[in-house]
């Protein structure tokens, strides 16, 4: 199964003069083990949507289901959904606070009530997953480089072993090499562990490189969904929505002038990136 969202709407400050509809009637399915890309202009509702999937916001209407766990407007306990999902916020390193990297990564597993031995195992496993040298475990997180800090913050989420990992603009502020390294690491983890990943990014190229299914939202509505090839074939519409897809869009436009059938992803990926 995976993640099934049905008729999801969210209104902030519902019933007040400040009511703001952020999501309207979203239906989507993200298969277990897939790598989904979520794209949309600023203010389109991406953050609101991922907070629903992570069990941090309750739907005004509709439901969010992950496997047998369902959340709707009447749900009292959000914990079961939250426990399935790891959400890495933007600039997650701002939330590092412990005196050592190991303690920071251990924070989540500790709160899950795991015993010391298991917490220790999880910490070092997560450090290995994100490519952090175990020797850094006793350092202060604030002595790490920017890229290492971000990896430590992501390790803290991974150490809770979520079924679904959501990353909100995870490469913001990193240099191009750091961006690629970080997402390559996440991608490898996704392949090895079969973890479902949802990547929120404004970078079409970033999304095209890793995701197998894309969701484009605008004004709180799901506008397009499909493989990267299918979605980018709508280059004209994406541009109208203010979504710039420089290299990829041009390539798809060119190809579309020559081809009538959909573009195989392989051609698209190799040529574009
Ligand atoms: P994105 O992540 O795509 O930038 P958001 O989900 O943050 O979009 O926002 C969607 C809409 O909801 C925007 O119009 C935004 O101003 C509004 N919004 C977001 N958070 C709140 C909030 N806490 N209270 C009121 N309105 C909000």
Task: State the main characteristics.
39% helix, 273 residues, 11 helices, four-stranded antiparallel β-sheet, single chain, alpha/beta
Description:
- The protein is of the alpha/beta class and 273 residues long.
- 39% of the residues lie in helices and 23% in strands.
- It has 11 helices and 10 strands.
- The strands form 2 sheets. It has a 6-stranded mixed beta sheet with strand order 6-7-8-3-9-10, with helices on both faces. Strands 2-1-4-5 form a 4-stranded antiparallel beta sheet, covered by helices on one side.
- Helix 6 links the parallel strand 7 and strand 8.
- The longest helix has 18 residues.
- The two termini are 31 Å apart.
Compile the SSE list and pairings:
Layout: E1 2-12, E2 20-31, E3 35-39, H1 46-53, E4 61-66, E5 69-71, H2 79-82, E6 85-88, H3 101-111, H4 116-129, H5 146-158, E7 164-168, H6 176-193, E8 196-200, H7 204-210, E9 213-218, E10 221-226, H8 228-232, H9 235-240, H10 246-258, H11 265-272
Parallel strand pairs: 3-8, 3-9, 6-7, 7-8
Antiparallel strand pairs: 1-2, 1-4, 4-5, 9-10
The structure holds adenosine-5'-diphosphate.
Adenosine-5'-diphosphate (ADP) is lined by residues 12-13, 20, 22, 40, 42-48.
Low-confidence stretches: 265-273
The helical percent reads: 25-40%
Strand order of the largest sheet: 6-7-8-3-9-10
Question: What multimeric state do the chains show?
Answer: single chain
What count of helical segments does DSSP give? Answer: 11
Portion in strands:
15-25%
Number of strands: 10
Radius of gyration: 19 Å
**Small-molecule binders:** adenosine-5'-diphosphate
Main sheet properties: 6 strands, mixed
Give the CA-based shape: globular
Return the average pLDDT rounded to an integer.
89
SSE series: EEEHEEHEHHHEHEHEEHHHH
Would you tell me the structural class of the helices and strands?
alpha/beta
Ends: how far apart?
31 Å
């Amino acid at each position: 199964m995976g993640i099934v969202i049905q008729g999801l709407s969210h209104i902030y400050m519902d019933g007040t003069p400040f009511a703001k509809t952020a999501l309207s009637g979203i239906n989507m399915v993200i298969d277990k083990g897939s790598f989904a890309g979520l794209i949309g202009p600023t203010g389109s509702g991406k953050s609101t949507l991922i907070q629903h999937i992570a069990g941090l916001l309750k739907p005004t209407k509709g439901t969010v289901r992950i496997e047998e766990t369902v959340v709707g407007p009447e749900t009292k306990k959000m914990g079961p959904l939250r426990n399935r999902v790891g959400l890495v916020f933007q600039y997650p390193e701002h939330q590092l606070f412990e005196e050592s990297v190991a303690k920071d990564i251990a924070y989540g597993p500790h709160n899950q009530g795991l015993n010391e031995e298991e917490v220790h195992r999880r910490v070092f496993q997560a450090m290995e997953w994100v490519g952090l040298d175990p020797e850094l475990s006793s350092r202060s997180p604030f002595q790490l480089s920017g890229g290492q800090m971000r990896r430590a913050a992501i390790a803290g989420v991974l150490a809770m072993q979520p079924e679904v990992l959501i990353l909100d603009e995870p490469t913001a502020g990193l240099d191009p090499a750091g961006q690629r390294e970080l997402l390559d690491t996440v991608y490898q983890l996704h392949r090895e562990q079969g973890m479902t990943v949802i990547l929120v990014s404004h970078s079409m190229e970033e999304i095209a490189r890793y995701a197998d299914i894309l969701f484009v939202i605008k004004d709180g509505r799901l506008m397009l969904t499909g493989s990267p090839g299918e979605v980018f074939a709508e280059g004209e519409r994406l541009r109208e929505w203010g979504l710039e897809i420089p290299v990829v869009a041009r390539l798809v436009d060119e190809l579309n002038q020559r081809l009538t059938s959909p573009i195989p992803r392989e051609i698209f990926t190799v040529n574009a990136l």
